[in-house]
Amino acid sequence: MDLTPRPVADSGSRRRRRWLPIAVLTLVIAAGGVIVTQFLTSAIDYYCNVDEIGAKDGCEAGRRLRVQGVVDEGTVSEDGTATTFSISFGAVSMPVRYEGEPGGIFKECIPVVVHGILEDGVFDGDRIEVKHSNEYKAENPDRVAADDGESKGSACSPSA
Amino acid sequence: MTASTATTGRPDRVTGTPFTRALGIVTLVGVLWLSWFGLFVTPADVNQGESVRIMYAHVPGAWLAYLAFVVTGISSAAYLWRRTRSLTWDRIAGASAEIGVLFMGISLVTGSLWGRLTWGTFWTWDARLTTTAFLFVTYVGYLAVRNLGGSHHQRARRSAVLALLAVLEIPLVHFSVELWNSLHQEASVAGNTDVTMDGLMLFTLFLGVIVFTLMYVWLLLHRQRALALQDLVDDTGLDLAIAARRAEVG
């Protein structure tokens, strides 16, 4: 079927403005502004690696940071309400204290991003995000055993 | 309203053809196949457990949204180029952007749920998430601009220029995980020579991409025709259009 519009009235431009698209556009520009602000203030370099603290611009102790590291094996312990563990990256380790129980798929030997402030050598975290890798393996004991686990670059093997 | 019947025997003013009907059936079968494989046949992930199943909708949604926005860009360029200028290109651009926004929305919602299950948070201002949100909002704005009014060619010219600017965001979104430290994992499949994914998972992911592509083409054909009908109604006025149709039938 022929759906070509007949070229009848296209020459005359109608001044038919509708309020809905203008309202949407206003919202879009506002949302875009918020997103750009977030992007410029915090999101560009999302986190510092543990070994970058004190070494890289913006990764100083005493200011609010997001730090990435792999949770060290055997360091996770809970005392009352807080969870303590240490994370390391590039052979540098850092103790972390977190009020509460980490969510997601938090466990040993997994890379995490902790939000908080480094004070007196202990990173006081108030938010933990688990950074899972882009490796997907079936939950199958045979295949896991066959894998040598070189991807994490450490001898760490999570207790499943 | 009963549709009048054209000489072909098909009801008048529908957007379906035998091809789209067949495509729709194939797509539906594909969706069922993908659901079956994604939810039951594929294994759970060693780290992420059952939540990895979200990937089969999240990743194809994002890829097809990129594709839809690229199609919008190409169609807009084809409209702007004098020798191929046609409102059909403009309507393909608009229809594709609508579907792209839908798929990006699917990807954002599923990504947010997946993030809660694995990272432990629904949303975070990470490079990938932030650039994706910006891309989504840009194309919602593009759709609003399309509806600002004016003649069809005014609409087409204005939105085509915007589409050509907006499509430049896509490389930024895709490479954001490599340009900056990001919570989001890097590309697992695209542009990666060393894919580390279980075979059945990878197959199901590609199945998802194929099913979403079929869905995209099916929606695009229908939506493009619907937009053409809408333009037709705008152009001639409903009464005129009906009168013309009656004249053709009678």
Quick synopsis:
The complex is a heterodimer of chains A (160) and B (250). By secondary structure, chain A is α+β, with helices and mostly antiparallel strands.
Would you spell out the secondary-structure blueprint of this structure?
The complex is a heterodimer of chains A (160) and B (250).
Chain A (H helix, E strand, L loop, with lengths): L18 H25 L4 E2 L14 E8 L5 E3 L2 E8 L2 E8 L11 E9 L2 E9 L10 H6 L14
Parallel strand pairs in A: 1-2, 5-7
Antiparallel strand pairs in A: 2-4, 2-6, 3-4, 4-5, 6-7
Chain B lengths: L17 H24 L13 H26 L6 H32 L8 H20 L5 H15 L2 H11 L19 H38 L1 H12 L1
State the helicity of chain A in percent bands: 10-25%
Biggest beta sheet summary of chain B: none
* Sheet/helix structural class of chain A: alpha+beta
Shape of chain A: elongated
Low-confidence stretches of chain B: 1-10
Assign the structural class of chain B, choosing from mainly alpha, mainly beta, alpha/beta, alpha+beta, or little secondary structure.
mainly alpha
What is the fold named in CATH at topology level of the largest domain in chain A? OB fold (Dihydrolipoamide Acetyltransferase, E2P)
Description:
The complex is a heterodimer of chains A (160) and B (250). Chain A has 160 residues and is an alpha+beta fold. In chain A, 19% of the residues lie in helices and 29% in strands. Chain A has 2 domains: 29 residues; 87 residues, Beta Barrel (OB fold (Dihydrolipoamide Acetyltransferase, E2P)). Chain A contains 2 helices and 7 strands. A 5-stranded mixed beta barrel of chain A has the order 2-4-5-7-6. In chain A, a hairpin with a 2-residue loop joins strand 4 and strand 5. Chain A is elongated, with a radius of gyration of 25 Å. Chain A starts with 18 loop residues before the first helix and ends in a 14-residue tail after the last helix. About 13% of the residues of chain A have low confidence. Chain B has one domain. Chains A and B meet through helix 1, strand 1 and strand 7 of A and helix 3, helix 4, helix 5 and helix 7 of B.
